[in-house]
Amino acid sequence: MCGIVGYYGTKDAVPLLLKGLKRLEYRGYDSAGLALLSDTGIEIMKKAGKVMDLERVVDDSVLKGTIGMGHTRWATHGEPNDTNAHPHLDQTGKFALIHNGIIENYSSIKTYLEQKGIQFRTETDTEVLVQLISFLYSENGKSFEKAVRKALKQVVGTYGIIVLFADEPQKMIAARHGSPLVMGVNSGEYFIASDASPIVDHTREVVYLEENEYVLINESGHRIKRLDDEKELNRPTSRIDFSIEEIEKGNYPHYMLKEINEQEHTITDTMRGRLRLDEGSVHLGGIQEHLLRIESARDIYITACGTSWHAGMIGKYLLEEYAGIPVHLEYASEFRYRNPIVDGKSVIIAISQSGETADTIAALKKAKDMGALTMGICNVVGSTISRETDCGIYTHAGPEIGVASTKAFTAQVSVLFMLALHFGRKNGLNKAKGVQLAKSLAEIGPFVKNIISNTESIEAIAKDTVEADNFLYLGRGMGFPIALEGALKLKEISYIHAEGYPAAEMKHGPIALIDEKMPVVFLAPHDKTFEKVVSNIQEVKARRGKVITVTNKVTKELEKLSDYIIEVPTPHSWIFPILSVIPLQLLAYHLAVLRGCDVDMPRNLAKSVTVE
Ligand code: AGP
Q1: Residue minimizing CA distance to atom 10 of ligand 1
Q2: Is residue 48 a contact partner of residue 85, using CB atoms and an 8 Å limit?
Q3: Which of 21, 138, 147, 534 has the most Cβ atoms closer than 10 angstroms to its Cβ?
Q4: How far is CA 313 from the centre of its chain?
Q5: In degrees to the nearest 10, what's the CA dihedral of 451, 454, 457, 458?
């Protein structure tokens, strides 16, 4: 939620910041703004809408300088208009601030400052922070750095911020608590950003700020400190591990389509070097040190949000079926406020593409405080979850920019298959079966390619169903989480109402919705659920619903019952969940395009949900 970018150097900052904002736009896109610092003061320009709307009005004869910052917003407090867009200024116009996060106690601070005569212009929580810094600056000995530290100690909530001050035009301060910040370093130039994507154009050397740290940049270099300690910290740089091509759209019309197509390789990349085909087992380096504790865990909790939660459900089913370990699946937002039975004998697995989801981080912290061993399954290297867990497994799917998660989901599911295979082999799954399962994972690439090459037939189904206002997605067993994921993909990018249900639950209520206008997508793998799913298809057909069946083997009966069939051949039916979600991603994509929706930046959403 919200992207922030800062530049401190010798080049013209405006084009650099605008390009950076475009890279961060997937984090929030309802308004954007820039602030430039020079000897004559601070100039700001902000605009409701996307970064390109800001770009259109930027006057580079006014906005000039080599130190500046930019923001792209996902509104929390105050509607997305020009006034509420960041950067925000204090009353004197000398302090400017951009912020990603939420200041929870903004209301009491605002009341206090108003009593002191300070006037507010916006409805945002962020303005409170910049006004507070300014107030503390004049009250407490006029030190910019001290005022920022002091203000940050008084606020409750989360923040990644950059602050500029007109009276000290050679300084930039950035701080984090609960929202990520990365600093790129390149001989005298500094780049601060919410993630590394705006930095990679300029340098690969980065420093990830840790929780409750801030950096002060000036002519003589940079200093990193904790907010509660005067000691300067020495932080070595890390290297960004992705290329510019990976974060560009290339010849694709949308990131989402690019990312769907990339799955031909990304799923294999996730498993590369980890599958032991001759042994029918798996080697997962990132959890090696903690294997004994994981293997002897009394129970496993999987916690996540959204699509990652759907992956978690597949993980639960797999670990219970193949490894015989009891697994609790928890929405992170619920887990964090419940009293779960977690202790030192529990393992908690947090699944998160971004590694920055606020609820998932909070759930993880809670389980850690209760004594559990923590494991992350993350895509973004160096993200908060990946750094705060005891151990973890990276999904290695490469940067995912489209707001609708696609390749990150199949990568998460692939990791969970490997975990199930690993613990399955420890807990009695025999070698021959292990070899068979491992081989089917290793051979998946051409099967993915085959599905993607059928995109035209899926587009044809989209054309026939584009007028529908509602969709149902039904599945049993592993088909159920895929039904949930298919429905989520459709609603988030096409705004068509869609629900995922266990197929058998249909007759307990949703069946009332079925008529000739309702497309019903069935997941029908040839496994122990097949015959039951076919019966459910019969029930829908009897009520004249429009049946779209996704199966790994077409039968005469399915042909007779289905209006449309999407065949997803599999080397083994156990990997049906990884493969069968891909046509559902494509169906959602084509429906959204046909309905003229902004596929990569759907309304009201943002890629990384860093507020609760
Ligand atoms: C997926 O398409 C969604 N945009 C969303 O549900 C997402 O999966 C969720 O916000 C969790 O994000 P994370 O994986 O980065 O934690």
Answers
A1: 306
A2: yes
A3: 21
A4: 18
A5: 40
Judging by DSSP bridges, how do beta strands 3-8 and 189-193 pair with one another? antiparallel
Q: Which residues pair with 100 in a beta bridge?
A: 160
Please give the helix or strand (H or E) that residue 48 lies within, else none. strand 41-48
Helix (H) / strand (E) element for 593: namely: helix 576-594
Q: How many residues does the chain have?
A: 612
User: How far apart, in whole angstroms, are the C-alpha atoms of residue 518 and residue 501?
Assistant: 14
Nearest alpha carbon, ligand 1 atom 5: 306
Distance of CA 106 to the CA centre of its chain: 26
CA 377–ligand 1 middle distance (angstroms): 13
Q: Whose CA is nearest to atom 8 of ligand 1?
A: 307
Give whole-number Cα distances, 56 to 17, 523, 524, in Å.
14, 47, 50
Alpha helices in 213-354 (DSSP H): 255-271, 291-295, 306-318, 332-335
According to the model, what pLDDT value does residue 62 have?
Answer: 78
Give me the average pLDDT of each 10-residue run along the chain (612 residues). 94 96 92 93 95 90 90 93 96 97 95 97 96 95 95 95 96 95 94 95 95 96 94 92 88 97 96 95 95 92 98 97 94 94 96 95 96 97 92 96 97 97 93 96 96 96 97 97 98 97 94 94 96 96 96 96 96 93 98 97 89 80
Element (H, E) at 592: helix 576-594
Ligand 1 atom nearest to CA at 360:
16
């390619």: which residue's tokens?
449
Alpha helices per DSSP H over 405-498: 407-426, 431-442, 444-453, 455-465, 479-494
State whether the beta carbon of 405 lies less than 6 angstroms from ligand 1: yes
Q: Give distance in angstroms: CA of 353 to centre of ligand 1.
A: 7
Degrees to nearest 5, angle at CA 24 with 202 and 496: 150
Atom of ligand 1 nearest to the CA of 408: 14
Q: Residue 51: CB partners within 8 Å, gap ≥ 6? A: 18, 21, 22, 25, 29, 32, 72
Our answer on whether the CB atom of 536 is closer than 6 Å to any ligand 1 atom is: no
Is the minimum distance from the CB of 412 to ligand 1 under 6 angstroms? no
Q: Which of 610, 577, 612 is nearest to 28 (CA)?
A: 610
Task: Provide the token pair at 243.
Answer: 């290329």
Which residue among 333, 353, 389, 488 has the greatest number of ligand 1 atoms within 8 angstroms of its CB, and so is best to mutate?
Answer: 353
Annotated catalytic sites, by residue?
A: 2, 607
Q: CA-CA distances (angstroms) from residue 100 to 71, 119, 180, 270, 607?
A: 9, 23, 9, 31, 13
405 CA closest ligand 1 atom index? 2
Index of the ligand 1 atom closest to the CA of residue 357: 16
Q: Which of 308, 356, 409 to mutate to test the pocket of ligand 1 (most atoms within 8 A of CB)?
A: 308
